[in-house]
């Protein structure tokens, strides 16, 4: 329920100020500045970009970690936080190397 509430709050914030919604999910990166530029050029393009980033963020957030790392990056998204759905990127190839032979 907490995820649904935060998603609805983010949508309401994005309706009024699209760059603020992007800032909350990606931080102060390339996606944020692209959204600021699009919002200055036209309020509607800023909304389209912000809602696209939020869709990618919440879609990847709800996926299984193994399928999230195996999928291709979303086009037009430059933030790794959005690409990973807010989760830290874990490489499945490094996980077995961390444990030695015979350790539990």
TrEMBL record:
PANTHER family: HYDROPHOBIC PROTEIN RCI2 LOW TEMPERATURE AND SALT RESPONSIVE PROTEIN LTI6 -RELATED (PTHR21659), UPF0057 MEMBRANE PROTEIN ZK632.10-RELATED (PTHR21659:SF42). PROSITE patterns: UPF0057. Pfam families: Pmp3. It comes from Penicillium arizonense. GO terms for cellular component: membrane. This is Stress response RCI peptide. InterPro entries: PMP3. Its main location: membrane.
